[in-house]
Amino acid sequence: MIDPVLDRLRKTPEWLVLVVLGLVSLAAPFIMPGLVTQLAFLWLMVVFAQTWDVLGGQLGYNSFGNVIFFGIGCYATAVMQRDSGLPYFDALTLGLLLSALLALVAALVFGAALLGIRGHYFAIATLGLGIAAGELAAGWDYIGAGSGMSLPLFPGELGSRELFFYFVMLAIAAVCFLTLRWLYGTRFGLAMNAIRDDEDKAEAMGLHTTAIKTVAWAISAVFLGLAGGVAGNMLGFIDPRDVAFSGATFGVWMVLMAILGGKGTLWGPVIGAIVFHITKELFWTYLLGWQRVALGVLIVLIVLFFPQGIMGWLADRRRARAGGAA
């Protein structure tokens, strides 16, 4: 029963999928007004998974430090809103631009320093980077240190805050997807995949591999910085370890969502983020007190029994059917 359905989905034009998904996304907060915040965080998860896959899937460099760009975005926007003296929306706009810029600069600096390292050494280095960022933020009084930082109140009517940030986060996720869709189809995208397949051969062919990896990381950092600025406002409070630089949650979830959907693909991280977020919300709703245990079990199951992801599983089924038909 499932194969005919998969065949129809595979033959559906991508533009039609995008149009339907766009219409559903625009209508969702009005159809489910009680779930607007959860839906906004769904798009945050999509951004997390897409941006992690730039390095982890397309380039084959597993990073555990991407959360640092998210944290920079959280604090940059919050500080601009607190200190600029501008009206709320002007300060928010400038804060998001600052978040994207600082995340970009941080990625260029850290990329130049770390992306010459390969394999598990790079993964360990990025993990340490994320932990160090959280500890530094927790000791910096200017941004609230360990006490955290509160965001200004939204000036709109009751309920308008959630709706506003839903559409802002949706826009970031959509622009991120379309940007990566374009990027993966360019010569730069081919160069990224060449590095993933064999970096030594890529260098022998004349590719400046460190520069390519750094630029790719910087592109993902821009969207993480924007997402951090919006997420901080959605939450209303930024804690340095549990929100901004939360490697144990956001940092790990980025990796898992990309793996679940199928890393190294365009749609895999999107699908993985949707499935993971819905499952996580169900755990938090129906397994109160045991939700973290259930989430831990889910993480183990994904890594052990589903390493190829949903897109990989679909590809295996197509190959099996093709082989059977032959």
The whole-number mean of residue pLDDT values reads: 89
Structural class: mainly alpha
- CATH class, please? Mainly Alpha
The name of the CATH topology is ABC transporter involved in vitamin B12 uptake, BtuC
Radius of gyration: 20 Å
> Uncertain segments of ≥5 residues (pLDDT<50)?
none
N-end to C-end Cα span: 21 Å
Q: How would the global form be characterised?
A: globular
How many discrete domains? 1
The biggest sheet, with number of strands, parallel, antiparallel or mixed sense and barrel status, is: 2 strands, antiparallel
Number of strands: 2
Strand content: under 5%
Tally of contiguous helical segments: 15
The H/E string reads HHHHHHEHHHHEHHHHH
Your description of this structure?
The protein is built from 15 helices and two strands. It is mainly alpha-helical and 326 residues long. The protein has a single domain (34-325), classed as ABC transporter involved in vitamin B12 uptake, BtuC (Orthogonal Bundle), CATH 1.10.3470. A two-stranded antiparallel ribbon has the order 1-2. The mean pLDDT is 89.
List keywords for this structure.
single chain; 326 residues; mainly alpha; ABC transporter involved in vitamin B12 uptake, BtuC; 2 strands
